[in-house]
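Neprosin PEP catalytic domain-containing protein, Brassica carinata. Tokens?
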Amino acid sequence: MPVRFLTLHSVVRCLMVVLTVMVTNIVEPVDGKVNISGQQKQETEFRLKQLNKQALNSIEMTPSSYPHEVLAEENNAPAPSNDEEQPENIVHPWQLVGECPENTIPIKRITKEDLLRIDDIKNYGKKLNISQPHQFYQPTDTSVDNGHEYAITYVNGGPYRGTKAQINVWKPRIEAGESSISQISIIGGKFDAGLNSIQAGSHVHPALYGDDNPRFFIYWTRDNYQNTGCYNLRCPGFVQINKKLTPGYLLTPISTYNGPQVKFTIQMWKDPKTGNWWLQLNDQELIGYWPKEIFTNLADEGASVIEWGGEVVNKKKDGQHTTTEMGSGHFPSEGFGKASSFEVIKIIDMNNGLIDPVKVKTLVSRPACYDIKTGYDKKYEVFFYYGGPGRNPNCS
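Tokens:
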């Protein structure tokens, strides 16, 4: 049943608590005063009003059904072992103080400082320079180089109802003005102007948050990143229901090279009854959903492509390849505990069953800079290592 939010006063009170704690503990302070022109101030105020929207009146609180495990003999795959590592229970720092009242959610309000960190406030919260889908990217053809590099695995053909995977949490080093992403992408339609996509994962994005910490993020678009969609809750689209965790939250702790490994699980699937695309973390936290009404191709039966892997923005400062790291910053050849990984990868079929993906393909922009290595075993099932350091003697 849809529920109504509390009064605006109650919602704002909850938001005030969230803001106080998040700004104090997560966002790096801005030193000194920022000098801006009158026109820039006016544009900033207008953009803030656009971004800081009022709450929805009613939302769906639960999916009609959840994906279910398919028995090993049904899937012709070995059963997983019982000693499989469990993802860490990652906690939002402001939860140490408290949580929002029932039927309200935490939202990080956007500030002037947030907008002034980027060159174009009209594009705040959006992915930029994705005019050429990466499936068309050829390392030997620089004419289609859009400044994004990839090391991903994917399945295509579909239809697929969703996916589930464990993601290794790292803190890659980032050059100024760039970002590093580890994500799952669900795609509907052809790679043209009508592309639909929803994404979730971990990224380091200083321009978006004001720091270099890894954070959980989401993204969506229905027109190949041209005009629609945004990160997290930066625009209308994703409907959050969780009162503890919100997209953009700090991922902590992080994995240690040749030491303890931290992981979290993402599951995204299409509700067979409503058509909404749900998002769940660690098999227990429903974060919310993308309503089917915001899509065209993904509003239909299912997805045509599912991708898992890493992405880096490479601005090629001084004409050189970036040193921005992907994943742990180490090549997949180093293996467990050293290279970053996706593990226990599943697709959700049109019967809502969780099954191993088959005919998995890989795409790597520049193997000398970032690479990928796939595998399968009883413990981690379908998995892969990926990433790299960026610029090195073989990558310039």
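DSSP finds five helices and 18 strands in the chain.
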